[in-house]
Amino acid sequence: MTGRGLPDQAAGRGHSRGHGRRKASSGTAGNSGSSPYTLTIPLHFLWDVEHNITIRKIFDHRIGRRLQKMLDDVRQRRNHLTTWLQPDIKKALLVHWETDDGFMHRHLTNRANRTSAM
């Protein structure tokens, strides 16, 4: 490793694995399309290959929790937080959650378990 945390390519270690883009916007929320106020900042993450499995597990756990919270917002009908979901898909999910006996059983069981754990 070099002093700045970048992999030493001459030693044959490290690969560029994670790439992402983050948008920083100073425009108003709800703008569609590209805005002159939108700045795209490329993010590049580097780590040694031996850390791939650990990083993937952390990523999967965090994204799984985030998706769980987002779907819970849909189920709880927090409409101001669910603009990302298409209306027809949202309606289908709400119908499923209200009519599926298996889901309702798991929902009530989990609620009782959370209550008893407190």
Automatic annotation (TrEMBL):
Species name: Arachis hypogaea (Peanut)
Annotated segments matching region Disordered: 1-36
Upper classification of the organism: Eukaryota, Viridiplantae, Streptophyta, Embryophyta, Tracheophyta
Domain of life of the organism encoding this protein: Eukaryota
Name the UniProt record assigns to this protein: Uncharacterized protein
Composition-biased stretches (Basic residues): 14-24
Biased composition (Low complexity): 25-35
